């Protein structure tokens, strides 16, 4: 892959390993900027085209984070050299599914390869309906809440996202992705925008399996609306 040490300094002044980290973070940022630019075109292109391309960009944004994190984490483990910006392995606002309060049959699941799950684990539902909960302790305000989940091609799981007893998002895992197991190919995200949160609110992800797809999800991410 490369023929010099990870600590070799390139013409840019960066080490090889820091270039790997920085370039993958920059790439993910670029696709998010594409999505924001497309969002600004609402009303200027026909609605069908706007929605179709918007969904594709949303998918690509999510996948850019999956592979940014997977590749950077792999190189971090191989090199044992930290990112000088402390981004790799540190994700502000991210709550791992396995660290949430798991109810009614959600259990930890390993993902292969491990680096395609944040933290190396996800959770899967082993009953008819499962829940995972997290109590918000941050500031009151409006937040985008993202659920990173796995959409396999061997079933159509159903998800709901609650704040307290209020449903703030619901969706079917029915995209046509090219694998029947949780992995980088099937990792995708749903975002509920501008959700009002107050300290003490309980955030719940509810999953309903279908056929061989067990409503597997990786994490939730809570980002304050600018």
Automatic annotation (TrEMBL):
Show where the Glycosyl hydrolase family 67 C-terminal domain sits: 1-87
- GO:BP terms for this protein? xylan catabolic process
SUPFAM superfamilies this protein is in?
(Trans)glycosidases
Q: Name one Pfam family in it.
A: Glyco_hydro_67C
Q: Which CDD domains match?
A: CBM6-CBM35-CBM36_like
> Which portions of this protein are annotated as coiled-coil regions?
none
- Any one Gene Ontology cellular component term annotated for this protein: extracellular region
Domain of life according to the entry: Eukaryota
Q: Which Gene Ontology molecular function entries are recorded, alphabetically?
A: alpha-glucuronidase activity
Q: Which PANTHER family match?
A: ALPHA-GLUCURONIDASE A
Q: What is this protein called?
A: Glycosyl hydrolase family 67 C-terminal domain-containing protein
What is the organism of origin for this protein?
Answer: Oppiella nova
